[in-house]
Amino acid sequence: MKDIVIIDKLTGIMPNKYEAVRIMAKEARRINSIMLRSEHADADAKPTNMAIQRMLDNKIKYEYVDEGQQRHYKDVKFEDEG
User: Fold this and answer.
1) Tens-digit pLDDT profile for residues 14-26
2) How far is CA 42 from CA 32, 36, 46, 64, in A?
3) Strand pairing partners for 78?
């Protein structure tokens, strides 16, 4: 049986669960892009599950920039991108 991610685990890493979901979605898109270009992509691994695990392992680095009244992503940096 697959593990269920409790939202409390995410809020322990990042206080805003909605922002955590946005960052994980961006990471999942990045992983999917890499998998599509790779000949050795693991067909059993799902990008969404991989992104969730990377968030839980605190391997996704991110930062924000304030532009006026709104916060925008400046960049989301990933551990394996250097």
Assistant:
1) 888 888 889 999 9
2) 11, 10, 8, 32
3) 60
Burial (0-12, 13-18, 19+ Cβ within 10 Å), 60:
buried
Question: 64 near 71, Cβ under 8 Å?
Answer: yes
**Sign of the torsion angle spanned by Cα atoms 58, 60, 66, 69:** negative
DSSP letter assigned to residue 72: E
- Is the Cα dihedral 76, 10, 52, 29 positive or negative? negative
Q: How far is the C-alpha of 68 from the C-alpha of 40, rounded, in Å? A: 44
Residue with tokens 């898109």: 29
Quickly tell me which residue has 């392992």 as its tokens.
57
- Are 28 and 50 contacting, i.e. CB atoms less than 8 angstroms apart? yes
pLDDT single digits (tens) 39-53: 766 667 899 999 999
